[in-house]
């Protein structure tokens, strides 16, 4: 079967359990088992090739530019691990079917389990190390889901997050390491990388790569100092613990060390780091395991310890060490999975995993007792069980390993580790199964059905088989070892047998077992010492670190983003000024190319006015109405400046916009407080002044710089001046630019206005349909209002002036193409004319008589402008291409007809609609505050019939 | 003396008159010490001042170019709107009590500006702006 | 003719200075107030004087293209004066 | 003293005043501050065509015209900033009417702190 | 001549007023037109991207005026790719808005939505810097409207800051444009590229300031720290579909930086040497850090997602600031990824909110649809944090790989890897509280159970997730496309010559039009 | 016919005014322009007529022109007086006063013109109207005899306006 299929089957199969959830537990487990089995068989179909020493390779490109491809490779090592993963997987699935209770969502469980299985198979079959990373992180994710499977348990959630954080960190480090490795080797394919031992080990990047990769491996395999997450992962259901945290996932790190052994091992760095980490883990794990009362915790730390043992073996860098490691991986997988499942059975039956509440189970659960005892004794290193064989090899290897120039260090530690290992194994057997039957188990224990004890029993058969007949395993182990060693070393000649003679390893082994027994007899006093001894609780430390990082990040983020706009703006201003200053100070500056133009008294007076109004605004800004008046002056002076500097169009636009803006602001100020309170401290104001002066100074310098220099070459506006009349049909070049050369800008601009109006309208609607409505209805003016809402003089005058204003607007519109003016200014003027009418007789009275659909006017304006632009498509010209002609209709003089005028009409309509819709929206807010609408255009009118009941009241409404 | 020369002098004189009135009006604005009194100075003197300047512009156009009448429009505009502006500012002064209280009207109850709506009468007096 | 033109040019300069001075004086009134009516009045005066300035500019440059600006300022100055006053009188300017 | 200096310093002063007001704590002065910044930038953009007196870009028999393009750009900018101002005034007003507070600071950012931590 | 290249701007620009005019009061009709418009956009955008895929640069002269005198719209690989991305995103966001009923919680949603699209698409397509400003304003003002859609005090207060900060940005943009025009006398991007070459090396401060200011403008849009302050509250408080659409808006800033700083101010240009190469990378790294730390610090899901947007923009900017073909390719790949991922997360946050009326990261009783929502969250979080197997991981690998040759490689790697870890922890905490811890909370007796979100909402989110998966599976072809795009950015001559040498009205000697 | 005329010209004087304004705006006279101005005058008057619902009674145009001439003369004379006051009279010697003018006029247009006249004539400002419109409040810059001023205004302006708006 194709390797793709072997990897893909679990992933594809992961879709099934969820679907089968409703079909019952049996179906759910069954489909999962079938999928796994299919993959397992698929793997086995490749066995002949592997046995023949071939490396099965296959691949498709995924992201070839990066070198990330779905390249798979199957050699002895991969086969070995895949076999473990799929084989134990099958047992675990069977076991889990009976382990999980009816409350548990089995579909979800098996989905996650299959995802995990696929990811694990992916790791061990990847040829591409980037692909390997993908699977690597996927195992972290699926294990996160599996550990947190019982979501209601806090321990599960915390354990899941801790595992994810630690293995995630390792995964990220691994990404770095792998990328470096691939870059050194020039390929991310293992088959290439493994050929480049010298290149890699001589690279200056070897050490960072090694450290990062080892970080990944150590975290995944719970090596010291990252061992602490594993016990907390035991919050997962037992099948998960057995599968992930003893048999497979934690071995991913071991696998990777083995996989990269040919290119990474053999250097002093590798030796020191890996061997010492392994040793420490081995001893530490064993010691901690002894004192754990939770069966699964005990087993978890024993796993840590044994993983340390394997790591240490890989660290020695010798071929023998590697072979011992491979052998122990196999042995450990068999006895540990069996133990986990036994622990699960005990838990399942007795409803507790606490050793102190157990004992005497030998009589109640004989089958389980046999299975667990055989497995535990194997772990303790008792002869005729497979654990003994690999442990012997380990001790042998330890005898030849000299760390830190201290020959006794490694052997001694190895013995201590083995001693404690034996002790906790004996404790497991003794305190759980031996002794008297108790009468206070939380539930009555008895052996479960075959479904649950069958899988561990099968494993124990293997334990015994290999233990008694190691030669059965030898060829396979050597095959795997050959794959580990690659071309870096030869497979050792050593034979696997129970009896090697009276070699030092045997004495060490005996010492360990005997010592273990002695330690167990001293367990009670030792436990007291252990409990009394202060020791760092890794989980507490981890949680403290996380809590500290969270509160640190909160301090940083909430301190930085405290919602104070003034600070945001100040930071922006400082940043911009600083960047501008940096750009200035690192550049070169040449002499001015333009000479300044002389300024007379009047210009200086104008400047003084502007500056005075601006400064007045700053000093008096707390009085809001006054600041509006002052900003009116600023606008007026800027407009005059535009006139002075030959920009009449701009001046007109500026002044009309100014007035409409002030009307808007006055409408808003009606609701807002009339004064701005003093809130900021003097220090703050000094800071603000400093920021403001820096920004102002910078703009001054920049403006002055440019004003005294010419552009590098002729500005494009030369073309506009030259072709405005010829091509645009207008003599007002600014207007021709707006409606023709750059009509697209103007199209966008009227859309901005249209959106502004729609937005204002929509917000008004929302406000008036929400809680604000009540507030507006109950609103009182903040000061008494004068009588005479619609003064007679104003009304009478408006009747004459408003039509004149409209006429002027029309005039400005028509002439815009050739003289200052245009649709935009005309639109504003017409709007202001209508506003005059509103101000004179009130919004209600005015709009009751003639109400324009301002939405429609905006829409029509944009559509007219847009359709004018589209019109040119029909003569096969681009959007907004203009055309014009001259027409003569008596008695009128010859006049110009230009499509640009139609466009300008769109502009005009959009502006009128937008301004009026906005003003209308604002005044709708205000109208909620009033009850009565006036029925007359003016409040006081002596010519009205006094008998008329609708005649004006004396009350100033 | 040709018509151009006379026109030129006329322009100059109109300019001086206009500018002088504009300045005088503003001096009044600054000098008088009561809001209502101040109102007199600029609204009128200024209007005439600008009127003279516009006249100067018209004459100038007739002397140096082919004539111009549209300054009349601006003049008319200013003349028509000035009373309204003054009326509103006066109302503001009365409403804000920034002048002497006016005597009561002989025919009606009160002045329209002082006819504060019932609902607003209990509100505090406006703060000075 | 040159005498007359010189005289006119001097008159233009004097007028410029006078109107500019008027602007500055109005600005002073605007800032010192004290009543809001005074400030609105000062603003109104400044608008009118601004018209004068632009008319002078037109005369000085012999250009007629500033007419529309002047007209618009005349129209809008009035509107804003009324708007400010209405705000003081009624709060809502287009009730 | 040259016109260029006057214009450049006016831009600088408008900017400084605008920035100062933008750093205030209430929406209203901040909006005014942004308006001043808009003036400053409009004048700056206008000045990118350099300053010329008495040469409007209306085609006549004249030979010298000021650069019309910045004028068109400023015109567009004025219109756009008008729309923006109207919008921000309305939003600020809406926010004020909802909370009866025209403070510009955003309480949400810190209200986050009141959420009990359970993660 | 064909007009397709302008269609992405014109279609929404005319559809929006049409909706306002004809269907103002009929949400059903609005929906039909809005969806039809977006589907049409996708078709057009796909056609344009197809057309540009072989390196063809399409120039469209608005008003028939030749560049640089008139405005041109330019379709090349980069712009059409962004147009396609935007259109596709828009479809799913729109479906969600309809499915969740958000579009009916205020006025004019669909018109504003179309205008927003017009602004974004115009910004991608235009070849003129001032026109870019105009489109920025269009997209911004539409975004203001969408951001405060359906109102509420909190949203409006956040909206005020959002608008004001962007007004500062707009002002800055104009300063930069003024400086550029004063220095070069042109506004067309291609023409600028030619004219900066004429600048006297003895007088460079002007162009340097212009270049720096322009970069800051785009940095604000891209939410680069310390100019990012507008983002967290506004994205968190915006209605979900709007926030999801906003996922593309930060990319407009990134796009503009790529365009301008590869074409006008390329890294090898002497007069602007030492500018963006000095501080863009540090700012990008800090953004990445701040964003991901913000994820860890967040106490509300919406803010968490908002900060992840900052972080992902930091990631994009790290890649961009390498200014190498590999860096830009990686950035483009990551831009597509992070747009889709951020949009999906905002929508998922809304699914969460649907059952529990707030997004505080505290456990509340499980709600209907929680299982599906949590699965979607898990997938989207994987994507956003850059865990395998989704595109975030691929993008991260690409950026790390591109960064390896940089001088700042150590910093790039350290920050990217550490911030990934922080974001993983942050997302895991949030997810475990929202979805897992909820299982331990009993619903109050008699509490009203909110109905599950509509199927259409899930379809929209699922669609985005499916796109992410596709982006991962087809990483090879996608990367080939962005690689070619990046290569063409570093060889801009075809772009420049196509833009500047296409004749327009009156730039041909034969054409002359006189008054008759 | 009258109805057609009234329909087309709701305010004929306004139409004429608009036509004149149009010609002045063009700053150049031609027949076509006048026709165009007239068309605009009709349209705009028509459109805005809804906001001017009343049709004022017959106004004597001739009398109005003579009134205007008187006012212009008064304005020029009074301007010089006020200028003199501004320049020479110290604030302490200034005697401003309110004067109240009981009105005989009732048409809003007439009252407005009266008030406008008073304001345009330097030295006096129309400040307010009484709450039913029967008195006009005027502020005088400097006066020794307020009653004489009041009578002067009534005699010189209000009487003429009553004739115009007969
Ligand atoms: Na108020
Ligand atoms: Na008077």
From TrEMBL, chain A:
<feature type="transmembrane region" description="Helical">
    <location>
        <begin position="408"/>
        <end position="429"/>
    </location>
</feature>
<dbReference type="GO" id="GO:0006811">
    <property type="term" value="P:monoatomic ion transport"/>
</dbReference>
<feature type="transmembrane region" description="Helical">
    <location>
        <begin position="820"/>
        <end position="840"/>
    </location>
</feature>
<feature type="domain" description="NADH-Ubiquinone oxidoreductase (complex I) chain 5 N-terminal">
    <location>
        <begin position="65"/>
        <end position="110"/>
    </location>
</feature>
<keyword id="KW-0812">Transmembrane</keyword>
<keyword id="KW-0472">Membrane</keyword>
<feature type="transmembrane region" description="Helical">
    <location>
        <begin position="505"/>
        <end position="523"/>
    </location>
</feature>
<keyword id="KW-1133">Transmembrane helix</keyword>
<feature type="transmembrane region" description="Helical">
    <location>
        <begin position="162"/>
        <end position="185"/>
    </location>
</feature>
<dbReference type="InterPro" id="IPR025383">
    <property type="entry name" value="MrpA_C/MbhD"/>
</dbReference>
<protein>
    <submittedName>
        <fullName>Monovalent cation/H+ antiporter subunit A</fullName>
    </submittedName>
</protein>
<dbReference type="InterPro" id="IPR007182">
    <property type="entry name" value="MnhB"/>
</dbReference>
From TrEMBL, chain B:
<protein>
    <submittedName>
        <fullName>Na+/H+ antiporter subunit G</fullName>
    </submittedName>
</protein>
<dbReference type="GO" id="GO:0015385">
    <property type="term" value="F:sodium:proton antiporter activity"/>
</dbReference>
<feature type="transmembrane region" description="Helical">
    <location>
        <begin position="6"/>
        <end position="33"/>
    </location>
</feature>
<dbReference type="InterPro" id="IPR005133">
    <property type="entry name" value="PhaG_MnhG_YufB"/>
</dbReference>
<dbReference type="Pfam" id="PF03334">
    <property type="entry name" value="PhaG_MnhG_YufB"/>
</dbReference>
<feature type="transmembrane region" description="Helical">
    <location>
        <begin position="45"/>
        <end position="65"/>
    </location>
</feature>
<keyword id="KW-0472">Membrane</keyword>
<feature type="transmembrane region" description="Helical">
    <location>
        <begin position="71"/>
        <end position="90"/>
    </location>
</feature>
<keyword id="KW-1133">Transmembrane helix</keyword>
<keyword id="KW-0812">Transmembrane</keyword>
UniProtKB/TrEMBL annotation, chain E:
<feature type="transmembrane region" description="Helical">
    <location>
        <begin position="6"/>
        <end position="25"/>
    </location>
</feature>
<dbReference type="InterPro" id="IPR050586">
    <property type="entry name" value="CPA3_Na-H_Antiporter_D"/>
</dbReference>
<feature type="transmembrane region" description="Helical">
    <location>
        <begin position="32"/>
        <end position="53"/>
    </location>
</feature>
<feature type="transmembrane region" description="Helical">
    <location>
        <begin position="370"/>
        <end position="390"/>
    </location>
</feature>
<feature type="transmembrane region" description="Helical">
    <location>
        <begin position="278"/>
        <end position="297"/>
    </location>
</feature>
<feature type="transmembrane region" description="Helical">
    <location>
        <begin position="330"/>
        <end position="349"/>
    </location>
</feature>
<comment type="function">
    <text>NDH-1 shuttles electrons from NADH, via FMN and iron-sulfur (Fe-S) centers, to quinones in the respiratory chain. The immediate electron acceptor for the enzyme in this species is believed to be ubiquinone. Couples the redox reaction to proton translocation (for every two electrons transferred, four hydrogen ions are translocated across the cytoplasmic membrane), and thus conserves the redox energy in a proton gradient.</text>
</comment>
<feature type="domain" description="NADH:quinone oxidoreductase/Mrp antiporter transmembrane">
    <location>
        <begin position="127"/>
        <end position="419"/>
    </location>
</feature>
<protein>
    <submittedName>
        <fullName>Monovalent cation/H+ antiporter subunit D</fullName>
    </submittedName>
</protein>
<comment type="similarity">
    <text>Belongs to the CPA3 antiporters (TC 2.A.63) subunit D family.</text>
</comment>
<feature type="transmembrane region" description="Helical">
    <location>
        <begin position="132"/>
        <end position="150"/>
    </location>
</feature>
<dbReference type="GO" id="GO:0042773">
    <property type="term" value="P:ATP synthesis coupled electron transport"/>
</dbReference>
UniProtKB/TrEMBL annotation, chain F:
<feature type="transmembrane region" description="Helical">
    <location>
        <begin position="31"/>
        <end position="52"/>
    </location>
</feature>
<dbReference type="InterPro" id="IPR002758">
    <property type="entry name" value="Cation_antiport_E"/>
</dbReference>
<keyword id="KW-1133">Transmembrane helix</keyword>
<keyword id="KW-1003">Cell membrane</keyword>
<protein>
    <submittedName>
        <fullName>Na+/H+ antiporter subunit E</fullName>
    </submittedName>
</protein>
<feature type="transmembrane region" description="Helical">
    <location>
        <begin position="64"/>
        <end position="87"/>
    </location>
</feature>
<keyword id="KW-0812">Transmembrane</keyword>
<comment type="similarity">
    <text>Belongs to the CPA3 antiporters (TC 2.A.63) subunit E family.</text>
</comment>
<dbReference type="Pfam" id="PF01899">
    <property type="entry name" value="MNHE"/>
</dbReference>
<keyword id="KW-0472">Membrane</keyword>
<dbReference type="GO" id="GO:0008324">
    <property type="term" value="F:monoatomic cation transmembrane transporter activity"/>
</dbReference>
<feature type="transmembrane region" description="Helical">
    <location>
        <begin position="7"/>
        <end position="25"/>
    </location>
</feature>
């Amino acid at each position: 079967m194709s390797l793709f299929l072997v990897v893909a089957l679990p992933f594809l199969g992961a879709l099934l359990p969820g679907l089968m959830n409703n079909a019952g537990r049996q179906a759910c487990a069954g489909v999962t088992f079938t999928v796994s089995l299919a993959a397992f068989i698929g793997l086995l179909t490749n066995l002949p090739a592997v046995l023949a020493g071939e490396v099965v390779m296959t691949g498709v490109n995924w992201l070839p530019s990066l070198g990330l491809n779905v390249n798979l490779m199957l050699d002895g090592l991969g086969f070995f691990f895949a076999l473990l993963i799929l084989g134990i997987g099958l047992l675990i699935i069977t076991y889990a079917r009976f382990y999980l209770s009816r409350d548990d969502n089995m579909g979800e469980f098996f989905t996650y389990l299959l995802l995990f299985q696929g990811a694990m198979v992916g790791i061990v079959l990847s040829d591409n190390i980037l692909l390997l990373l993908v699977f690597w992180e996927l195992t972290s994710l699926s294990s996160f889901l599996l550990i947190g499977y019982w979501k209601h348990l806090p321990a599960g959630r915390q354990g899941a997050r801790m595992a994810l954080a630690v293995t995630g960190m390792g995964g990220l480090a691994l990404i770095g390491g792998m990328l470096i490795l691939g870059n050194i080797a020039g390929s991310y394919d293992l088959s290439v990388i493994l050929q480049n031992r010298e290149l890699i080990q001589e690279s200056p990047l070897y050490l960072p790569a090694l450290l990062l990769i080892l970080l990944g491996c150590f975290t995944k395999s719970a090596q010291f100092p990252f061992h602490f997450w594993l016990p907390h992962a035991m919050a997962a259901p037992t099948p998960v613990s057995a599968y992930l945290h003893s048999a497979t996932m934690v071995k991913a790190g071991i696998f990777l060390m083995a996989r990269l052994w040919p290119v990474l091992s053999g250097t002093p760095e590798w030796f020191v780091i890996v061997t010492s980490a392994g040793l420490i883990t081995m001893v530490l794990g064993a010691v901690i395991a002894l004192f754990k009362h939770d069966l699964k915790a005990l087993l978890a730390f024993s796993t840590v310890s044994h993983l340390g043992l394997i790591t240490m073996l890989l660290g020695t860098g010798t071929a023998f060490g590697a072979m011992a490691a491979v052998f122990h991986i196999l042995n450990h997988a068999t006895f540990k999975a069996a133990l986990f499942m036994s622990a699960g059975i005990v838990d399942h039956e007795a409803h507790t995993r606490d050793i102190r509440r157990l004992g005497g189970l030998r009589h109640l659960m004989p089958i389980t007792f046999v299975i667990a005892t055989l497995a535990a004794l194997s772990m303790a290193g008792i002869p005729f069980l497979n654990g003994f064989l690999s442990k012997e090899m380990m001790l042998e290897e330890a005898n030849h390993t000299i760390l830190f120039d201290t020959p006794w260090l490694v052997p001694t530690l190895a013995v201590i580790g083995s001693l404690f290992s034996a002790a906790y194994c004996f404790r497991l057997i003794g305190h759980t199964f031996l002794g008297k039957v108790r009468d206070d188990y939380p539930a009555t224990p008895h052996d479960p059905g075959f479904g649950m004890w069958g899988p561990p029993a099968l494993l124990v058969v293997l334990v015994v088989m290999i233990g008694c007949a190691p030669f059965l395993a030898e060829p396979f182990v050597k095959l795997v070892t050959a794959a580990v060693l690659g071309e870096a070393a030869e497979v050792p000649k050593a034979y696997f047998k129970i009896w090697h003679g009276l070699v030092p390893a045997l004495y060490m082994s005996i010492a360990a077992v005997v010592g273990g027994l002695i330690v167990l007899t001293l367990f009670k006093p030792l436990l007291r010492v252990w409990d009394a001894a202060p020791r760092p609780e890794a989980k507490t430390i981890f949680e403290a670190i996380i809590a500290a990082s969270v509160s640190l990040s909160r301090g940083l983020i909430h301190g930085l983003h405290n919602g104070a706009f003034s600070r945001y703006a100040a930071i922006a201003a400082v940043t911009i000024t600083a960047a501008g200053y940096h750009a200035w100070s690192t550049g070169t500056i040449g002499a001015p190319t333009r000479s300044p133009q002389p300024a007379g008294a009047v210009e200086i007076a104008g400047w003084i006015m502007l500056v005075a109004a601006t400064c007045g605004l700053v000093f008096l800004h707390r009085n809001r109405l006054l600041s509006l008046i002052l900003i009116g002056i600023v606008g007026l002076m800027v407009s005059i400046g535009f006139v002075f500097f030959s920009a009449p169009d701009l001046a007109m636009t500026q002044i009309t916009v100014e007035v409409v803006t002030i009307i808007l602001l006055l409408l808003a100020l009606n609701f807002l407080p009339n004064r701005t309170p003093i809130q900021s401290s003097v220090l703050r104001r000094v800071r603000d002044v400093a920021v403001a002066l820096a920004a102002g100074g910078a703009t001054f310098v920049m403006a002055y710089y440019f004003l005294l220099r010419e552009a590098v070459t002729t500005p494009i506006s030369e073309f506009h001046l030259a072709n405005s009349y010829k091509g645009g049909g207008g003599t007002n070049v600014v207007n021709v630019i707006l409606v023709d050369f750059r009509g697209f800008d103007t199209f966008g601009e009227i859309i901005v206005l249209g959106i502004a109006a729609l937005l204002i309208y929509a917000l008004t609607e929302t406000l008036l349909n929400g809680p604000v409505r009540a507030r507006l209805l109950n609103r009182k003016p903040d000061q008494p209002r004068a009588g005479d809402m619609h003064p007679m003089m104003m009304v009478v005058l408006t009747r004459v002036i408003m039509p004149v204003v409209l006429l002027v607007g029309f005039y400005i519109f028509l002439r815009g193409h050739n003289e200052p003016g245009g649709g935009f200014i005309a639109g504003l003027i017409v709007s202001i004319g209508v506003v005059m009418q509103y101000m004179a007789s009130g919004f209600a009275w005015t709009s009751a008589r003639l109400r324009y659909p301002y939405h429609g006017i905006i829409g029509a304006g944009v559509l007219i402008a847009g359709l004018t632009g589209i019109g040119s498509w029909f003569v096969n010209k681009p959007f907004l291409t203009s055309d014009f002609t001259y027409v003569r209709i008596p008695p009128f003089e010859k006049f110009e007809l230009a499509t640009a005028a139609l466009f300008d009409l769109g502009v005009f309509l959009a502006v009128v609609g937008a301004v009026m819709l906005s003003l209308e929206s604002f005044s709708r807010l205000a109208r909620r505050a009033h009850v009565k609408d006036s029925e007359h255009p003016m409040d006081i009118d002596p010519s009205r019939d006094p008998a008329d009941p609708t005649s004006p009241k004396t009350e100033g409404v | 003396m040709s018509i151009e020369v006379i026109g030129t002098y006329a322009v100059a004189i109109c300019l001086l008159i206009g500018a002088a009135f504009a300045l005088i009006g503003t001096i009044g604005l600054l000098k008088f010490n009561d809001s209502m009194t101040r109102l007199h100075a600029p609204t009128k003197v200024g209007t005439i001042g600008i009127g003279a300047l516009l006249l100067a512009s018209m004459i100038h156009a007739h002397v140096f170019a082919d004539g111009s009448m549209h300054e009349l429009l601006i003049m008319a505009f200013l003349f028509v709107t000035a009373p309204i502006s003054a009326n509103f500012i006066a109302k503001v002064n009365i409403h804000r009590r920034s002048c002497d209280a006016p005597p009561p009207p002989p025919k009606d109850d009160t002045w329209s500006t002082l006819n504060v709506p019932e609902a607003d009468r209990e509100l505090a007096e406006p703060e000075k702006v | 003719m040159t005498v007359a033109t010189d005289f006119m040019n001097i008159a233009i300069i004097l007028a410029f200075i006078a109107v500019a001075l008027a602007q500055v004086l109005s600005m002073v009134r605007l800032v010192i107030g004290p009543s809001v009516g005074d400030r609105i009045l000062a603003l109104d005066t400044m608008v009118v004087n601004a018209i004068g300035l632009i008319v002078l500019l037109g005369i000085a440059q012999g250009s007629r293209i500033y007419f529309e600006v002047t007209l618009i300022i005349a129209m809008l100055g009035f509107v804003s004066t009324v708007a400010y006053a209405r705000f003081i009188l009624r709060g809502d300017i287009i009730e | 003293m040259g016109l260029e200096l006057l214009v450049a310093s006016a831009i600088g002063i408008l900017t400084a005043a605008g920035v100062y007001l933008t750093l205030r704590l209430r929406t209203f002065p901040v909006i005014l501050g942004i308006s001043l910044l808009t003036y400053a930038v409009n004048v700056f953009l206008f000045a990118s065509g350099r300053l010329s007196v008495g040469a409007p870009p209306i085609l006549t028999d004249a030979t010298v015209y000021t650069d019309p393009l910045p004028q068109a750009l400023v015109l567009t900018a004025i219109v756009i900033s008008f729309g923006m101002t109207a919008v921000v005034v309305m939003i600020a007003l809406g926010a004020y009417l909802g909370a009866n507070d025209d403070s510009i600071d955003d309480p949400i950012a810190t209200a986050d702190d009141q959420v009990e931590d359970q993660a | 001549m064909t007009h397709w290249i302008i269609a992405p701007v014109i279609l929404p620009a005319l559809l929006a007023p049409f909706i306002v005019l004809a269907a103002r009061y009929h949400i059903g009709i609005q929906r039909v037109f809005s969806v039809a418009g977006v589907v049409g956009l996708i078709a057009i955008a796909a056609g344009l991207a197809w057309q540009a895929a072989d390196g063809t640069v399409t120039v469209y002269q608005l008003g028939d005026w030749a560049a640089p005198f008139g405005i041109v719209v330019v379709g090349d690989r980069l712009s059409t790719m962004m147009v396609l991305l935007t259109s596709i995103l828009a479809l799913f966001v729109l479906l969600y808005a309809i499915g969740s009923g958000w579009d009916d919680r205020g006025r004019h949603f669909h018109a504003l939505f179309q205008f927003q699209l017009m602004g974004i698409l115009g910004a991608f397509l235009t070849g003129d810097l001032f026109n870019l400003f105009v489109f920025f304003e269009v997209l911004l003002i539409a975004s203001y409207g969408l951001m405060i859609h359906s109102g509420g005090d909190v949203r409006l207060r956040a909206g005020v800051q959002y608008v004001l900060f962007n007004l500062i940005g707009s002002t800055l943009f104009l300063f930069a444009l003024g400086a550029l025009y004063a220095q070069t006398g042109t506004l067309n991007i291609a023409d600028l590229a030619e004219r900066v070459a004429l600048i006297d090396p003895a007088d460079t401060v002007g162009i340097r300031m212009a270049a720096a200011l322009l970069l800051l403008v785009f940095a604000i849009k891209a939410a680069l720290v310390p100019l990012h302050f507008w983002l967290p509250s506004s994205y968190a408080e915006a209605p979900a579909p709007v926030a999801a659409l906003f996922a593309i808006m930060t990319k407009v800033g990134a796009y503009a930086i790529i365009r301008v700083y590869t074409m006008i101010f390329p890294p090898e240009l002497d007069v602007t040497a030492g500018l963006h190469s000095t501080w863009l990378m540090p700012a990008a790294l800090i953004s990445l850090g701040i964003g991901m730390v913000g994820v860890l610090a967040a106490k509300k899901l919406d803010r968490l997602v908002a900060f992840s947007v900052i972080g992902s923009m930091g990631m994009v900017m790290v890649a961009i600031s390498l200014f190498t073909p590999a860096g830009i390719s990686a950035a483009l790949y990551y831009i597509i990824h992070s747009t889709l991922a951020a949009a999906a997360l905002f929508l998922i946050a809304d699914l969460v909110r649907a059952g529990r009326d707030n997004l505080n990261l505290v456990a509340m009783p499980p709600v209907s649809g929680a299982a599906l929502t949590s699965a979607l969250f898990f997938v989207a979080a994987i994507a956003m944090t850059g865990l395998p197997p989704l595109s975030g991981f691929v993008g991260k690998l690409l950026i790390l790989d591109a960064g390896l040759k940089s001088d700042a490689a150590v910093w790039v790697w350290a920050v990217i890897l550490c911030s990934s870890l922080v974001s993983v922890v942050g997302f895991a905490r949030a997810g475990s509280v929202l979805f897992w811890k909820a299982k331990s909370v009993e619903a109050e007796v008699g509490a009203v159970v909110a109905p599950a979100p509509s199927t259409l909402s899930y379809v929209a989110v699922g669609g985005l997730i499916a796109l992410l998966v596709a982006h991962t599976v087809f990483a090879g072809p996608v990367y080939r496309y962005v690689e070619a795009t990046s290569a063409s950015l570093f060889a801009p001559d075809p772009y420049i010559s196509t833009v500047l040498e296409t004749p327009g009205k009156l730039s041909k000697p034969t054409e002359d039009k006189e008054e008759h | 016919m009258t109805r057609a005329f009234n329909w087309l010209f709701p305010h004929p004087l306004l139409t004429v005014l608009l036509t004149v304004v149009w010609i002045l705006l063009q700053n150049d006279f031609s027949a076509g322009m006048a026709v165009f101005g007239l068309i605009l005058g009709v349209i705009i008057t028509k459109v805005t007529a809804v906001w001017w619902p009343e049709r004022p009674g017959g106004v004597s145009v001739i009398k109005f022109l003579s009134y205007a001439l008187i006012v212009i003369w008064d304005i020029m004379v009074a301007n010089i007086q006020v200028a003199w006051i501004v320049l020479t009279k110290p604030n302490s010697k200034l005697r401003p006063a309110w004067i109240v003018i009981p009105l005989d006029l009732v048409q809003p247009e007439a009252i407005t013109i009266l008030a406008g006249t008073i304001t345009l004539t330097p030295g006096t400002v129309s400040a307010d109207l009484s709450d039913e419109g029967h008195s006009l409040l005027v502020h005088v810059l400097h006066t020794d005899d307020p009653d004489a001023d009041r009578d002067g205004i009534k005699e010189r302006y209000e009487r003429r306006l009553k004739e115009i708006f007969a």
